[in-house]
Write a structure and sequence with these properties.
heterodimer, A: 513 residues, alpha/beta, Rossmann fold, six-stranded mixed beta sheet, 18 helices, B: 294 residues, ABC transporter involved in vitamin B12 uptake, BtuC, 70% helix
């Protein structure tokens, strides 16, 4: 008898000509937490989707307790005791916790729902794993951390002995991460196995027993956590040394470039999203905004670029009042925007690289005359962006859709910076990018700051914020909980503020709001 | 007058709850009406007619299921195509079977059943308890449907598939199968609604005899916010409008009869405008599901 529960043997998965996994072999031990580390696009999620039955491997086999198994759909995986918590939660928002958990437990037969006994069982499980969840609460009323616990509960409820977690900490505050780790340790101690997919090194070093590193779809190596270091893991992950060190040299700021006062607005559902935001950003400064997703960051961005109207409050750019102006006026007055979702709002995916490069300025004298596009000028400008920003594309005629995420982001960066902005609003500029591209984007932001631009950086990645921001404001339920000056920045304080706990650090202007 | 709207609407609630819009109800109703008449005419049994109507409805709606679930076609276009096909095909088949005659063939339709005692209650009695058996059956089906949707495992699966198919899939639910079943249930109900027209309300099949009821049924579903009981109320209002315009015409009110004829349809538009803002559609409404795209 070995203590290995699952073996993935020589797994290869191809999508068309694209190889997502190549000859990957991996062993999962009973009662252990196994880290699966790799950059975006390294094939971590694909590999786990194979284990969970969402994809079929092109070649290779899966052994469960030394028995060969064919997992061709998720219900089979569930029956075999394999559960998965996806990066985007698979919960029906309008359902209650118990309804979500019961879903899919049932047989093919038509039966009356027995929610009460299910709820009782859930409460017992909650006790065992030290969670607090009301089985009758609707998912839409729960915080992201709680939703994640519902997903974990759901897997345990259906009898999972092997739990796959896909980037579970991406959406959590540091405190919630601690709680999650506690739950995972309890699971490990009760003999369950956990696969923890991540690209964050610190986390996996803290929680993992073993770590497998994937790069370009291939397994680099599996190592024991105790016998490895951060440097070694980075090297395995990227294939070279990466030094995340940026000059944080203080550049003199002398005037306020962007100022907002008493900003209120509603979200798409008509509920209050921002509740009295006061901010100032000077030239030569990066102001970071930390906060759990959905606390008003999106709305703030949209207001600062003219895309959303306020219910109250005022905005100035370089002492010029901007309230109630149109997006076009914002652009003309020097506000550039790197939007959160580059596919939906940043680019026209079916347009060529060339056309995307001039989306903001196509109607200015630079690129058109009397309504006719000046293709010669456009070509020149696009070629310059491709060259300056090192965009990897077959030609400027290629559709943006065909480019990788990092190269798409570079086009947006190039386009926005080419407009010579005074203010740069960057919302999650490195989301979904690999380490190399992330490094590049961050350097560009710093360069902009050094050239006098006021940068507003919204990011879910606290490390990123701490690395490159001069000051960090924390947003929670549409309010600024506090603004940390350079010397006050520390991850614990930010975490508390993100969770809505008012620490001792409250800047004066916020008291007024 | 409400039943031929209510039955398709109840079926459509299943269909839409699973995330599919079947705009082809009109065509399905016509096929059901034809089936009901043909079955009754040749067998002499009204119940054989009812069964054939349901079978026609189910078979015809399979086309919609294939188009919307398997081929992932645009559901609005597929639905409109089904409507046109149903109208043409039912007329065509009717002419092939019965030829073109001056007097259309007819059958003896379902007779009203007076429920003893209850039907003698003044006002309410004639309104509620003097109908043919299909009407009573409809009321039973409303209740059964509400229970199935809200209280059973199948209902939970249907709602999950309509709200978040990826989640349902990851929990081991066969999204495609559930959607097929729901579209076909919708077809069965619409077929039954058609039977009510040809062998309950009238005694023959007429071209285009559904007269837009399929579309009104879709409106009722949205008005009812996918709840069978509210659909009952909604269908009643539209039935009332139809009855009212007939009555007003008979009385000879000085309003152009074209306007009166349009009354139920105008009402549909008004109701839709007023309630559609409140209606929370299933999140995956009209969105085809494809496991590869995630």
């Amino acid at each position: 008898m070995t203590d290995i529960v699952v073996t993935l043997k020589n797994i290869t998965k191809t999508f068309g000509t694209n190889v997502a996994n190549e000859n990957v072999t991996m062993n999962l031990k009973k009662g252990s937490i196994h880290g699966l580390l790799g950059e975006n696009g390294a094939g971590k999620t694909t590999l786990m989707n194979i284990l969970y039955g969402l994809y079929k491997p092109t070649t290779g086999e899966i052994l469960l307790n030394d028995q060969r198994v064919d997992i061709d759909n998720p219900s089979k995986a569930l029956n075999l005791g394999i559960g998965m918590v996806h990066q985007h939660f698979m919960l029906v928002r309008d359902f209650t916790v118990v309804e979500n958990i019961v879903l899919g437990q049932e047989t093919k037969k038509l039966r009356f729902l027995d929610l009460e006994s299910a709820a009782k069982k859930i409460e017992d499980l909650c006790k065992k794993y030290k969670m607090k969840i009301d089985p009758y609460a609707k998912i839409s009323q729960l915080s992201v951390g709680e939703q994640q616990r519902v997903e974990i509960l759901s897997a345990i409820y259906s009898g999972a002995n092997i739990l796959i977690l896909d980037e579970p900490t991406a959406v959590l505050t540091p405190q919630e991460v601690k709680e999650l780790f506690q739950i995972l340790r309890l699971m490990r101690d009760s003999g369950k196995s956990v696969i923890f997919i991540t690209h964050k090194l610190e986390e996996i070093l803290e929680i993992g027993d073993e770590i497998s590193v994937l790069r370009d779809g291939k397994l680099v190596d599996t190592v024991k956590t105790k016998k490895t270091t951060k440097q070694q893991l980075t090297n395995m992950m990227v294939g070279r040394d990466v030094l995340f060190q940026f000059s944080k040299a203080e550049v003199k700021s002398d005037k306020i470039t962007l100022k907002v006062e008493g900003l209120y607005c509603n979200n798409d559902k008509g509920l209050p999203a921002l509740q009295g935001i006061n901010l100032e950003i000077k030239n030569n400064e990066i102001l970071g905004i930390a906060g759990v997703d959905g606390n008003g960051q999106k709305e703030l961005c949209e207001i600062l670029t003219g895309l959303r109207s306020t219910t109250d409050g005022r905005i100035w750019v370089c002492e010029q009042e901007m309230s109630d102006k149109t997006p076009k006026q914002f652009i003309q007055d020097g506000v550039a925007h790197i939007p959160e979702d580059r596919h939906k709002t940043g680019l026209v995916m079916n347009f060529s690289v060339m056309k995307n490069c001039i989306l903001k300025e196509f109607d200015t004298g630079k690129f058109s005359k009397a309504g006719f596009l000046n293709f010669k000028a456009i070509r020149k400008a696009a070629e310059k962006i491709v060259k300056d920003y090192n965009v990897k594309t077959s030609s400027i005629e290629a559709k943006v859709r065909e480019l990788s995420g990092g190269n798409q982001q570079k086009i947006i960066l190039g386009r926005e910076i080419n407009c010579v902005p005074k203010v740069l609003i960057a919302n999650q500029p490195t989301r979904g990018l690999d380490i190399g591209a992330t490094e590049y984007v961050r350097q560009r932001l710093i360069k902009q700051k050094e050239q006098g631009v006021a940068v507003l950086l919204i990011s879910a990645d606290l490390e990123e914020l701490i690395q490159i921001s001069d000051r960090i404001a924390v947003i929670y339920e549409g309010k600024i909980m506090g603004i940390l000056e350079r010397e006050e920045i520390d991850i614990e304080t930010i975490g508390l503020l993100m969770a809505g706990v008012k620490g001792g650090l409250v800047s004066e202007e916020d008291i007024a709001g | 007058m409400s039943v031929p709207i209510l039955l398709p609407a109840i079926g459509e609630i299943f269909t839409q709850r699973s995330g599919i819009l079947n705009l082809g109800l009109e065509g399905v109703i016509l096929m059901g009406a034809l089936g009901g008449f043909v079955g009754t005419y040749y067998s002499g049994s009204l119940w054989v007619g009812v069964m054939l109507a349901v079978a026609f409805g189910m078979l015809f709606s399979v086309i919609m299921a294939v188009l919307s679930v398997t081929i992932r076609a645009n559901q609005v276009i597929a639905g409109l195509a089904l409507t046109i096909l149903g109208a043409g095909l039912s007329t065509f088949l009717f002419r092939i079977i019965f030829g073109i005659k001056k007097l259309p063939p007819s059958i003896e339709p379902f007779q009203a059943i007076k429920i003893p005692v209850l039907s003698e209650i003044p006002i309410l009695g004639p309104v509620l308890f003097q109908h043919n058996i299909l009407v009573y059956l409809t009321f039973v089906l409303v209740i059964v449907s509400a229970i199935v949707l809200e209280k059973t495992t199948f209902g939970l699966k249907v709602r999950a598939v309509g709200e978040h198919p990826q989640a349902a899939d990851s929990k081991g639910i066969n999204v495609y199968l559930i959607r097929y079943i729901c579209v076909i249930i919708g077809g069965a109900f619409a077929g039954l609604g058609g039977a009510f027209l040809s062998i309950g309300y009238m005694n023959t099949f007429l071209d285009q005899m559904s007269a837009g009821r399929g579309f009104i049924a879709v409106a009722v579903v949205i008005f009812a916010r996918w709840n069978p009981y509210r659909a009952l109320g909604g269908a009643f209002v539209f039935g009332l409008a139809s009855a009212l315009q007939l009555r007003l015409q008979a009385v000879g009110v000085p309003i152009p009869h074209q306007f009166l004829l349009a009354l139920p349809y105008i009402l549909t538009i008004l109701v839709l405008i007023s309630v559609s803002k409140k209606a929370e559609f299933p999140k995956a409404f009209t969105l085809p599901y494809n496991r590869g795209e995630r």
